[in-house]
Amino acid sequence: MADDTSAAAGTSTETGAGTGSNLRTTKPGTKRLFLTVSVLISFLLGAPFLLKSTEIHRSPLPSAAISSLSDHLHSNPPSFPCHFQAIFLSPFKPSDSSLSLSVAERIRAQLSAQSCGNCNFTVSVTVDSGSSCRDEGDAASAACLWECGGGGLVDAIEGRDDQGIDELLLSAVNERTGGCAGRVYSVFVMEGRDERVVIGKHRHAWMVLKDLDDSTSVVSMIGTVFGDYFMRGGVEKGEYIPVGSDGNVVLSFSLLNSNPSDWIYDWDFQRTGEVLLAPVLEALAPVANITMESQVLYHAPKSSISYWDEKLEAYVVNTRDLPFFVNSNEWHLDTSLSASGRSKVLQFVVYVPSASECPLYIRTPEGEMSKTNAFISPMWGGVAIWNPPGCSMQSQGIHIVRDVLPPQELEKIIEIFIGQLRLLFGLNSNYVEPSPIFKVLASEKGFTNWELDLLYRQHTCFNLLSSLSTLQSLSTLVESLPRMIVMDEIGKQVELSLEAANLAERNISLGINNASALSSIRARALAEDAFFHPSIMSISYSSMEHYFAIYMPFFAPVSLHVLLAAVKEVKRYFAERSKYLTFRASKLKSS
Amino acid sequence: MASHTFLSLLLFYLYSFHLLRPIYCSFGSNGFETTSVPKEEEFSEELLLKPLPDYKVLAHFHFTSTSPPSSSNGKHHHLFPKSIAQLVKKYKIRELELSFTQGRWNYDRWGASDPLSTANGKPPGVELWALFDIPTKEEIDATWRNLTHSLSGLFCASINFLESSTSYSAPLWGFLPNNGDLRYGALPREAVCTENLTPWLKLLPCRDKAGIASLLDRPSIYRGHYHSQRLKLRSDGLNGIVIEQTLSVVLQPIDRTSWSMHQLFKKSLTGKCALAKSSKVFLEIEGNLVSQNENILELVGEADMVTNDQRDHSTIYQYNVERYSEHEALDIRVNWKKLLQVSFLQAPLHASRFLMGSGNERGSIAISLQSARNSTKGLYDNSKNCFTRVVIFQVVPWYVKVYYHTLRIYVDGAIRDAKDVVEKINVAPSEDKVSPGTLEMMLQFPCGMMSAALTLDFDKGFLHIDEYPPDANQGFDIPSALVSFPDFISRRIYPDSISSPLLQSYKGRNIVKSYTEVLLVPLTTPDFSMPYNVITFTCTVLALYFGSMVNVLRRRVSEEERLAKSKDKRKPGLIPLLISKISNKVRGIKEDSANQSQSSQPILGPKVVFKVVLIALIAVLGHYIFNSS
Which residues form a coiled coil (chain B) (predicted)? Predict the structure, then answer.
């Protein structure tokens, strides 16, 4: 208060002193200076609060954790613990001491690419030939080791066919490695007259060799069985597994009549198809929840051109024209309404050509007819061409042929479709054996147990990788759009998904298969839920321009005033002070 | 013998009397009176051509697909569209009708009480109603929402706008008697075009590649005066799923007195769809031409069968498409020898609806009913005990706030007490931004009445700025009201020799009904730049206030005055100098060059240059900062 009065006195004396002169008798007042500067400071202090209050709500995403996990998975793909065991049922003297190590080396040598879904394997070798029993190598647990006493197997095998041997060995495996029957892959090696290597329908194979003396070739064969079949299924990469993110797959079967004015074929898919496909669906149940549906469509011509081939005496479509075969304008295959959410629809199409292009075959680049007369399109489905009997006779009668696809023909087509399904899932439709003595037993379920294991591993791995790539794209998207609203729900889903992914990764390395598959599915579903959240596209309506348009009319003039006032007042204060100081100096001088 | 004849006559009389008596019947049984359940999926296609009194031609395409009841419904199909079966299964639909209409059915000229017009006259835009087989109300609402989205995807239309609870209603008896499991919604402004027709055709096994549907030449059918495309489905455990797909087009032939199918559609019918169980074309002429035996009409093309309906309202000529091929296309040609004077069956009352009042604040809706006596003279007498019942069903969006207590009913120009006229009323008032207002009203008018009118006052509501549609100034549509006459049943019975799902559907008891016009209500539309204007204006005022306050607190008035005086003595400032210069230039007074050179000195001074550079620097910096962010 006292300061105020003195300042007031100061101003009153100013008038007396006069600004025009270079002298000032009183100290310049600081009231106005204080006022303008405090307004300016309060504005400056208020600015962060304003920015904070007009901020767009963005839930923080753990982008660092996402990228670190994804880097980790890319450099070090998750591998599942598996145990391989080779059992010699005939006397065998290995040349070098550590047979299991050389087998492992052999497998590792073939394991070139760091692909997803590989095994982090352990190998053990047992020689179990009646009297002698010797274990070697490392097993995950003692229960997984082959329990000796299977000497009688060699005699039991004698005289049985492959199917019989397969069942016999299955029971032997279950009996002797009861502890971890589902997780051990076995190869039985024995001496015999007719050489062959058979890979069974379950998780074991057997080799009958003339002599076991050449241990290098025996080891290389064992390595091939383990590495190429049990671990990778003869597939190089199986990244695409056509399963929807909710674990559902709809198989949509369509019978397409190219031109119903020539002939109309119907089918009894419900009776034949469902019966034939039911075991396949059952077998695939751990990987995907599959449903089926069928329809018959008419007036659905293909869109690629076929022409008459004199040599084959048929109309042919070249393989290079196959990408244009599917006529998306006329084939109203429809995505299924029953396929809820993000499930995947795989189309399987039986194409019945019209009279003007019958019989129709696919010609391979070598100029031969395709054996199956069918092709697949990855992630979409498969097409099989079925030529009606007697269509080459050109019997263009007046009466339209209305017929039902014969059940045996339908069975053949469905067999083709099962092969295509295997291809779509990344397995070979039939194995090309490295040597003539190799044989792979096919399961009546379409998928053997070890193939299912493989799919299961790959599916888990694929889910994990795809969830991370989804999360990563989401976080880059969010970072690239600074005015995008990110709901709390999205943040939560991302966090949960990341958590599930971490859990899946840990469970994989621990070898808890069911839990890892479940959490990997959960991670992928949550990641996609977050990415396809309906609010994700609602980029804030208040863009940067909008923001300026609202606040400029107030803050531009006001800040101009405040700044100018502060600058003027500061300038004046210093000017007046220098006057006062000169006055004081002169006074001192004069005194 | 005589008594026998008398007895049969009496029976017939009783029977016909029974027909005219008020009958409560469900619309649901319309046209689906299939006697035997087929074992297989079936498809049939039909086309009915009918000359209209104003020399236009109605072409009514009718496709029926049936799927027997089976556990595999929705999974395995041969002819029946899989998507529809899945729709029925997923949403537990008992009945559904979806119509896309362009133009308005002209009830005065094209008929109002024959089965064709009562079943096919539809309100403009999209109308969707569905009956669900679901117990609880909440579940029905949720299913309805999902259904609108599915249909919207299936038919390439904005049916999903019916999702919000403000756009659909649940009438109890005004539209169709039900137990609260019916939902009704209409989009009057939806434009209908080929993009809706293509998915509709996709449901047919032959699409438009063969058969009757191949006549659908897009330019010809969309040139018509009325275009209505419908999908009606019904599903129950007994008959399975039945879909009726109809397309009604009113076309104008070039020559009034003579037209042919080829002229109308610019395409010829060369054969049936190979998958159709039956494929027929009918030509229906109102009036009993067979018995009249008058030479007013010449048909080119021999009909397979000519019959009349039981009460001789019309004559039907039947053509079986199977007989025709590419070499001999079916082309029906009609030559009128004498211009037709057909009096069409009118509805008992002609309904129309209009808006009254002016301004953007309030108005009233009026529904006027005019008696169409001449056509139904026989039904009326002036006795006091005779009444005609009329049911009005109207849905009004929430922003048109109807005051239902202001209902006034005029009969023959005189106001009548609502109690005397209204037999039954059900009002569901609108709730702001939640639900539309629904009015269901059953009225009883004396038979001798000439005209009646109903008025309802309303206030126009205000919408939030982001609730306005893109073209807000066009106005808002109130969907058509439905006026039905439960005492009047349009039905035609044809001899059993014709087996046709189309004519079969006419046997059903269709209640005579007509849709009124769509109303266009202009609402007060704000200036959509208003928020910005308000913001800038307020901010400017605030900035002015703030600036002056800062100045009042800061400035030393006396000191500045003194300064200004002393400055006046010395040298005028830069800006006053410039102002005086400009004003001098404007006045045309030339200053001497010496003065000019003197005054130009400070403009190019180092201080000014520095200031300009500083401002440019700030601008560049600002630009850089904003771009980098």
Answer: none
Cβ–Cβ below 8 Å for B274 and A264: yes
| Nearest CA-CA partner of A271 in B466, B300, B71 | B71
Burial of B53 (0-12, 13-18, 19+ CB in 10 A): middle
**Strand ranges inside A237-377, DSSP E:** 248-257, 263-266, 289-298, 307-309, 314-318, 344-352, 360-363, 374-377
Q: Are strands A263-266 and A401-404 parallel, antiparallel or unpaired?
A: parallel
CB contact set of B451 (below 8 Å; sequence gap of 6+):
B368, B369, B370, B371, B411, B412, B413
On the question of pLDDT at A19 being above 70, the answer is no
A:248-287 residues touching chain B, CB 8 A cutoff: 260-261, 264, 266, 269-270
Contact B303/B285 with Cβ under 8 angstroms? no
pLDDT tens digits along A55-102: 777 888 888 999 998 898 888 778 788 888 888 877 776 655 677 777
Dihedrals phi, psi of A26, to nearest 5 degrees: -115, 165
Task: Look up residue A159 and give its amino acid.
Answer: G
Region of residue B494 (phi > 0: left; psi between -120 and 50: alpha; otherwise: beta): beta
pLDDT at res. A95 = 56
Whether residue B418 has pLDDT greater than 80: yes
Query: Which H or E element spans position B493?
Result: none
Q: What is the pLDDT of residues A304-324, one digit of tens each?
A: 888 888 888 889 999 888 989
Which residues lie across from A384 on neighbouring strands?
A350, A374
Question: What's the whole-model pTM score?
Answer: 0.81
Is residue A87 within 8 A of residue A132, CB to CB? The reply is: no
State which H helix or E strand residue B541 sits in: helix B530-554
**Among candidates A230, A281, A273, A227, which has minimal Cα distance to A425?**
A281
Strand B226-236, strand B240-251: pairing: antiparallel
Alpha-carbon distance of A78 to A66, in angstroms, equals 16
Task: Answer yes or no: is pLDDT of A536 > 50.
Answer: yes
Residue with tokens 């030449």: B217
Using the structure block, give the residue that is written with the tokens 């019918």: B269
From chain B, which residues contact A within 8 Å (Cβ)?
A: 72, 74-79, 82-83, 86-87, 89-90, 150, 202, 205-207, 209-210, 271, 274-275, 532, 535-536, 539-540, 542-544, 546-547, 550-551, 553-554, 556, 558-559, 562-563, 566, 626, 629
A487-498 b/e with 16+ CB inside 10 Å = b? beebbebbbbbb
ipTM, interface predicted TM-score of the complex? 0.79
Mean pLDDT to the nearest integer, B511-517? 91
